[in-house]
C-alpha cells in the first residue's frame, strides 16, 4: 500500500456548507397566503386603527371638557350605559386584533369598520356638529387608508388555488 492510498482512506469526508442565516429564518416563517397584507401595510393598518381608538378617546375627552354630549356618551347628568359608551371603540379594536393576527381580507374589513365608525359621526350631526365633523374626518381617513391598503394584498400566482380554499399556504 502506498502512502498516497493510506492518506486517502483516512481522510475525513468534506463537511456540507453551513446553512445561511436567511435560509434558516425563511424555513421558520410561513409563506404569505393570498388575501393577506404585506408586512408594511400591516404595520400601517395596525397604526391606523390604534390611532382611531386614540382619536375617539380624544373626542370623548373633548366632549366631557366642553360639556357637549355626543349621542353615544349622553349628557353628564344622565350618561348612556357603558356598552353604548364603549361601542365606538369596538370596530377599531377588532380591526387592531385582526391586524395582529394577520387575517385575510383586512382592507375589506377595514372599509367596513370605517363605515361603522362613520355612523357614530352621522348620529352626532344634528347634536354637536363640530364633534360630528371630527368623527367623520377620523372615519374618512380610516376609509382612505383601508382602501389604499388594497394595493398591499398578496394575490395568488398563476396556477395557484383560489384564496378561499382552506388555510393552506399558496405555493
Care to describe what's here?
- The protein is 57% helix and 0% strand.
- The protein is mainly alpha-helical.
- Helix 5 (90-100) packs antiparallel against helix 6 (106-123).
- It has helices at 3-10, 21-28, 39-66, 82-86, 90-100, 106-123, 129-148.
- The model has no long low-confidence stretch (mean pLDDT 84).
Topology at a glance:
Elements: H1 3-10, H2 21-28, H3 39-66, H4 82-86, H5 90-100, H6 106-123, H7 129-148
Strand proportion, as a percent range, falls in under 5%
Q: Based on the structure, what is the oligomeric state of the protein chains?
A: single chain
Q: SSE string, helix = H, strand = E?
A: HHHHHHH
Distance between the termini: 55 Å
Biggest beta sheet summary: none
Total E-strand runs: 0
What is the number of helices?
7
Shape: elongated
Low-confidence stretches: none
Please bin the fraction of helical residues: 55-70%
> What is the typical, i.e. mean, pLDDT?
84
Structural class: mainly alpha
Rg on CA atoms, Å: 27 Å
